[in-house]
Amino acid sequence: MYEWTDEKLQALSDAELKNLLANAERKSADDLITKCKAALEARNALKPRREGKPRTEIKEFEHQMSEQLAIVGREMAEKYDLSEETAKAKSEGIKGFRAHKLLDSKGFAKLGGMQRDGSVAIERYISYRRGDETVYLGVFLPKDAPLEDHEFQVIAPKALLEGGKPIAEIRPFATEKQKQPADSGLAFKDLAEAAAAFDKALAKITA
Q: Are residues 28 and 99 in the same domain?
């Protein structure tokens, strides 16, 4: 039987050592399993640990808002049918229709286009589209602005949004490309108030 000494184990690459461990575990070779694990642990202990950079105040705020918006989104999804399947079925005949995912792939609020292109410090949002109408709820912080200047925006067609103002008033510095595909919006300092307006708009679009 081949003798795996410490020197021989040390001569193996990480991948080779892991393969040897897997083979030892398959054969229930307890002594070799112990040696392999000890060798791997010793190597990991020698590797410098990469410490993640602490979040900046703005990034921490963005993360918190993404979570809170996602909570609102999940509450709305329990209240209304916001599935992509229903959106597609109710949008038959609309050229170029594409259903909106309510949240991102990790279950947080989605990253907005204006944050992607660097026009603003924060734009995180949730949205629902049916037919040619879209209802949007997001948090918005202008570039180089203090955190307290953030606001929550609800954007939807005029018929769905009570008291909605022109998008140019809500986002005066946005280009036509950056404005949401709707003709009215409202801005709030309080998320609960914004969520209530979003709720009313969803009730209409899903009716």
A: no
Place of tokens 């049916």: 130
Task: Extract the tokens encoding 170.
Answer: 């809500």
Report the Cα–Cα distance between both ends of the chain, in Å, rounded: 74
Q: Would the pTM count as exceeding 0.85? A: no
pLDDT for position 93 = 87
Domain of residue 15, residue span: 6-46
What tens digit of pLDDT does each residue of 96-108 get? 888 989 999 899 9
Check: CB of residue 100 under 8 Å from CB of residue 127. Answer: yes
List the structure tokens of 181: 């595909």
Query: Considering its fold, how many domains does the chain have in total?
Result: 2
> Is the Cβ–Cβ distance between 109 and 69 less than 8 Å?
yes
Per-residue three-class SS string for the chain: CCCCCHHHHHCCCHHHHHHHHHHHHHCCCHHHHHHHHHHHHHHHHHCCCCCCCCCCHHHHHHHHHHHHHHHHHHHHHHHCCCCHHHHHHCCCCCCCCCCCCCCCCCCCCEECHHHHCCCEEEEEEEEEEECCEEEEEEEEEECCCCHHHCEEEEEECHHHCCCCECHHHHCCCCCCCCCCCCCEEEEECCHHHHHHHHHHHHHHHCC
Alpha carbon distance 26, 141 (integer Å): 55
CA nearest neighbour of 130 among 62, 181, 190, 59: 181
Question: In this structure, are 85 and 146 located in the same domain?
Answer: yes
